[in-house]
Amino acid sequence: MMRTLLIFLTLAGVCAAQKVSTQELLRMARTRDAGLEQALRDTLGEANIQKGTAAAGELGDFVFAIASEKGPSLQINYDPPIAAFKAGSLWVVQTRLNTRTAYKYTWIADGRRIGCSGNECVPANNLPAFGPDSYAQPGVPQGKLTGPIEVPSKIYPGVKANVWYYVPAQWDGVTPLAVQVWGDGQQFTGPRPGQWRILETLDNLTAQKRIPLMVSIFVQAGTGPERNERSIEYDTVSDAYLHRLLDEIFPVVAEHVKMRTDGYSRAIQGLSSGGIMAFNAAFDKPEAFSRVLSWIGSYTALRRSADHPEGGGEYPTMVRREAKRNIRVWIEDGSNDLDNTAGNWPAANIGMANALKFKGYDYHFSFGVGEHNDAQGAAELPESLTWLWRDYDPAKTSQEFVQDPGEKDQPVWRVVQLNRK
Q1: Rounded Cα–Cα distance for residues 404 and 6 (Å)
Q2: Can you tell me whether residue 199 is helix, strand or coil?
Q3: 416 to 267, 337, 364, 412, 419: CA distances (angstroms)
Q4: Cβ(276)–Cβ(349) under 8 Å?
Q5: How do 214-219 and 178-183 pair as beta strands?
Q6: Which residues, in sequence order, are CB contacts of 38 under 8 Å at separation 6+?
C-alpha cells in the first residue's frame, strides 16, 4: 500500500505544482521553445525532474523531462526507447500515446534504467492517458456533489465513515435513480479537474446517454478502533460489509435522493481490496448488486478466516464450483501489480478472468502493464462504465446476463511471454 500512496502523491504533486498550462507546455516542447527548460522546472517540479517522474499530458500528447549527465532515452511499456532532445540542461521527450489506457515508463541511460533496482522502479511511473470523455466538455452540465456525511456503524462497533453522493444535473428530483457505489470514494470527490476525472466522466457519459441517470455514492473505508479497519471491511469474505452498505449507508443517502431498489439498477466499484469488496457484494447477493467494476482486485489471502482460510484467494475456485450468479463483471489489472506473502495480484486476476469465462459469466477482462494504482482503471472508465450499463432499460427490474457468444471461441487467458529468459 505504501507504493500506491507514493504514486498518488507523485501524480497529485505534479498537478499542484503546475505553473504553465499543459497545452502550453506541450506547444513549447513541440516547437523546442527557448523557455522550455524553465517552464518544465516551474511546472513539473525539481524533485520529479531529478527522479525521472516528471510528465504532463493531455488527450494523448505527453511531455517527459529528466536531469541526467548523459543523454537518456525513454522506454514506454516495452516499446523501443525514444531518444531525448536537450532543453537547456534537461533532457526531454515529446510524444503521442493512444488514449483510454495507462502506460509504464522508464528512463534509460548507458543501458541502465534510472531510478530502478532489478525489476522494480520506485516510485512507479504509471501514467493515465485520458480520452476526451474524461475531460469537462463545453455545454455539458455538471452534477451536484454533496458531502461528506459521517455515517456511524452498528455492524462494525465504533466505526464511522464519510459518504458523498453525486446526482446528475438532468435529474428531475422525483424519478428514482439507478445506483453506482464507489469504494474508497474519497479519492474521487476532490476539486475539479479530479486527479482521476471520475466526475467529469460521469457528466459526459450521462449527457451522451451512455449510462442511465444514476446517483453515485462515494464511500470512504471506515475508521475505528482497529488500525486496519479497511482490510476488515473489504478483504473479509462475508456479508458484513454488504449489510453495512444496504442497511446503514443507503438509508442515509435515501433521505436526500430517491433510489432504485432492484439489483438490476445497482452497480458497485472497488479498487485493490475494494475490488474484492465489490465482487463479494454482488457474488453474495446478486439481487442487491448485479454490476461489478473491479480495479486491481486483491483476490488474494490478505484476510483469512475459519470459513475462508485463504480469504479472497478462494474466489477463482468458488466462481468455478458454485452456481453461476446473474451478474456482469468488468475486471482490470496490470502485469506489474503486487506480489507478496498474500499472493500474486496479476496471477489472481488472470485466474478470476478464466473462472468467469469458464462459468459463462458476462465479463470483460482488461489487462495492462501497470502497477498497483488507479491509472488504467480511471483512463478506461468511459469504456468500462458504458460496457457495464449497456442495454440498461429503466422500465425493467431484471435481465439475464449472458456471456458474449464470441467469447466461447476465445482461448483461456495465458501468460505467453515471461519477463526474463
Answers
A1: 39
A2: helix
A3: 33, 17, 19, 12, 10
A4: no
A5: parallel
A6: 88
Contact 65, 49 (CB under 8 A): yes
Q: What does the block give as the cell for 29?
A: 516542447
The one-letter amino acid at 368: G
- Kindly give the interhelix angle for 381-388 and 198-207, rounded to the nearest 10 degrees: 50
Say how far apart CA 102 and CA 127 lie, in whole Å: 5
Q: The C-alpha cell of 56 is what?
A: 504532463
Supply the pLDDT for residue 94: 97
| Measured distance CA(292)–CA(319) in Å, rounded | 14
The Cβ of residue 239 has, within 10 Å, a number of other Cβ atoms equal to 15
**Amino acid residing at 324:** K
CA 237 from centroid of its chain's CA atoms: 22
CATH assignment of 2-128, given 3.40.50, 2.30.29, 3.30.450, 2.60.40? Answer: 2.60.40
- The pTM score is 0.91
Cβ contact 55:125 at 8 Å: yes
Residue 380 has pLDDT above 90, yes or no: yes
CB neighbour list of residue 167: distance below 8 Å, 6 or more residues apart: 143, 144, 146, 177, 215, 257
Q: Give the cell for residue 291.
A: 454490476
Cell numbers that stand for 382 in this block: 468511459
Q: Where are the domains of the chain?
A: 2-128, 144-409
Average pLDDT over residues 160-181: 98
The verdict on whether omega for the bond into residue 128 sits within 30 degrees of 0, i.e. cis, is: no
If you classify domain 144-409 with CATH, what class do you get? alpha beta
Instruction: Tell whether the torsion through CA atoms of 112, 113, 118 and 119 is positive or negative.
Output: negative
Residue 226 has pLDDT above 80, yes or no: yes
Distances (CA, A) of 355 to 278, 295, 360, 402, 413: 17, 17, 9, 15, 10
